[in-house]
Amino acid sequence: MKKKVQFKKGEIMNNTTVLIGVNGTIGAINLPVYLACIKEKINCSLDVILTENAKKFINPLSLSPYCDNVYDDLFRFQGLVAPHVSLVANISKFLIIPCSANFLYKIANGVGDDLLSCCILNYDKSIFIFPNMNDTMWNKKSVQRNVDIIKKDGHVFLNVSDLALKSASGTFEKTDAALPQPDELIKRVFNS
């Protein structure tokens, strides 16, 4: 049995800024739980970037109680000058949760066609990546090739092996690209 990680509010980090990028996988529907847990346990400013595909799984308005700002458009500046530069200028942690096979391709190949991918190109530190897909996709040679490239670029993968909902059938299956529980995510990202 896994030991549960327990944190008190504000215990881990103070005065930090966290940026979370979200793209289109079924795991995006769990984002409010992750955001609420981060806000509860860590004293931080928390911003979220949604891709167009992420918005097919989660409404940007549903995230506002759990984070400071939600961004979803490279060309709608929301008071920012060059948001793809200013959003990453002073962040302490950058997480991509969940991350699809398609978005792994974008990261590995330097594609900058939306706000999130442009922010990744402008960030010069390690990014924590949480892939979320079925095992068939995860084990494809092309996906693993992209994972290898991204790791060589210095980014960190924090996926777990666990049961995950198979969106096509509504059943659960084991995958090596499952999302960790929120407390486990906090332990692995903010204690590093």
From TrEMBL:
Q: Which UniProt keywords apply?
A: Membrane, Plasmid, Transmembrane, Transmembrane helix
- GO cellular component assignments: phosphopantothenoylcysteine decarboxylase complex
What this protein is called in its record is Flavoprotein domain-containing protein
According to the record, the segments passing through the membrane are: 12-35
Q: Where do the Flavoprotein domain residues begin and end?
A: 17-189
Q: Which GO terms describe its molecular function?
A: FMN binding; phosphopantothenoylcysteine decarboxylase activity
InterPro entries attached to this UniProt entry = Flavin_trans-like, Flavoprotein
Q: Provide the GO biological process annotations.
A: coenzyme A biosynthetic process
